[in-house]
Write a structure and sequence with these properties.
The complex is a heterodimer of chains A (144) and B (234). The radius of gyration of chain A is 17 Å and the shape is globular. Chain A has helices spanning 41-50, 55-65, 70-86, and strands at residues 8-11, 16-21, 24-29, 35-38, 90-93, 117-119. Residues 136-142 of chain A have low confidence and may be disordered. Chain A contains three helices and six strands. With 234 residues, chain B is of the alpha/beta class. Helix content of chain B is 36%, strand content 23%. In chain B, strands 1, 2, 3, 4, 5, 6, 7, 8 and 9 form a nine-stranded mixed sheet that branches. In chain B, helix 7 runs parallel beside helix 8 (213-233). The longest helix of chain B is centred in the C-terminal third of the chain and has 21 residues, at 213-233. The chains are: A alpha+beta (144), B alpha/beta (234). The A-B interface holds A 14, 16-19, 21, 24, 26-28, 30-31, 35, 37, 119, 122, 124-141, 143-144 and B 17-18, 45, 69, 71, 122, 124, 133, 137, 140-142, 146-150, 153, 172-174, 176-177, 180-181, 184, 192, 200, 202-212, 215-217, 219-221, 223-224, 226-228.
Chain lengths: 144, 234
């Protein structure tokens, strides 16, 4: 499978919890307890995916922000998108109109191929307590 | 022959917030335990319903502790601070223990001095008004018996709370998960009984069903912080 550079993707819905801290993203699949990290350029790519940017736009941002070529960034973003699709963490959406330019960086950062790291060591800890995926949202007590 | 040591006292802490509907069932499941050396503390998070009356109907068998509303973790901690037992257990006011829950867990901790805590498997069940949802979720993995890494299945030696701390009161959804992560990071020893000894009720108002973005974000932040600690320790 190849990725069309004009394609846009979005995080996959109700089972996914995510946070970005200091540019690194952590994703948790609440249905399985598996979690993932996306560091550095991968975290930046995830942030752009959340905004609905196209693969081409994400690659453009990475090559502007990191010490890599546009061609390399495009290939790497394509591979990252494939990994995220494999793990059901994103789904393709309708192509979005180009967004405004991202802020220009003064100094490009060292580049490392964006990768999705997967962890299963907390699956048992997350089996019972997180919100149960698949259930309807229920009314909640107002506590504050 | 030396006499057998006395049964250790188990403090059974029941955090409650406007839980009048199910509190009596929870307390009955505690008093139906085959293990009898217990004290029962209902820790109240500023309820405005009749939870206090329900607890009071059990007389001196139940101690009532109350605070201004401060969240689930702060409520559990209120109970921990009031507890007199060597072993601490928690039962959410809408959940149920099976009768041999404490017996089996105490036996584990007595037989294995290296163990610091014991959890059990848990199974969800649905309030009658959610029968349709129960039917639709029957095959869901979460509807099967699952390892209960949650406070409602936990029995822990009291010193554990001195060594790794109490539940984090700034967390409203993931406080139990975060506590178990710290437990694991401290390399403390735990046994998970593979038998369902806790029933976790799904109903229209329970906190764990709050599938809000705030809840999901809290779990993600807790996991992210644990990952960061692991990396910085390398």
């Amino acid at each position: 499978m190849t990725i069309d550079s004009s394609s846009c993707y979005r995080p996959c819905g109700e089972n996914l919890a995510s946070t970005i801290i200091d540019g690194d993203a952590v994703l948790v699949n609440l249905a399985t307890g598996v979690y993932y990290s996306l560091d550095g350029a991968a975290g930046a790519a995830w942030e752009m995916i959340e905004k609905g940017r196209s693969v081409a736009a994400i690659a453009q941002l990475l090559s502007a922000r990191y010490e890599t070529t546009a061609e390399q960034a495009l290939a790497d973003v394509g591979n990252l998108v494939l990994r995220l699709l494999d793990e059901n963490l994103i789904a393709q959406v309708e192509t979005q109109p180009p967004a405004g330019a991202e802020p220009v960086v003064e100094q490009r950062l060292p580049y490392r191929t964006p990768e999705l790291a997967m962890y299963t060591d907390m699956a048992d800890l997350l089996a019972l307590d997180p919100p149960m995926p698949g259930l309807v949202t229920a009314p909640t007590p107002e506590r504050k | 022959m030396s006499p057998a040591p006395a049964d250790p006292l188990v403090s059974c802490i029941v955090p409650v917030f406007n839980g009048e509907r199910y509190l009596a069932e929870a307390l009955d499941s505690i008093f139906a335990q085959t293990y009898q050396s217990i004290e029962v503390i209902v820790a109240d998070d500023g309820s405005s319903d009749k939870s206090r009356s329900v607890a009071a109907s059990y007389g001196a068998r139940v101690r009532w502790m109350s605070q201004a509303t401060a969240g689930p973790a702060a409520t559990r901690n209120l109970g921990v601070r009031a507890a007199r037992g060597d072993l601490l257990a928690f039962l959410d006011a809408d959940d149920l223990w099976k009768p041999r829950k404490l017996e089996y867990q105490v036996a584990q901790l007595r037989e294995h001095s290296e163990l610091q805590a014991c959890v059990t498997h848990a199974q969800m069940f649905w309030a009658p008004e959610l029968a349709a949802e129960e039917n639709s979720c029957r095959e869901h993995p979460r509807a099967q018996p699952i390892p209960g890494y949650a406070s409602t299945t936990l029995l822990a030696r009291r010193p554990v709370f001195d060594s790794i701390g109490l539940f984090r009161e700034d967390l409203w959804f993931a406080d139990s998960t975060e506590w178990f992560i710290r437990f694991r990071e401290a390399k403390l020893s735990l046994h998970a009984i593979p038998e369902v000894l806790v029933l976790h009720r799904m109903h229209g108002a329970n906190l764990t069903r709050r599938r809000s973005e705030a809840s999901k974000a809290e779990f993600a932040k807790v996991i992210s912080a644990a990952l960061a600690r692991r990396r910085s320790a390398r």
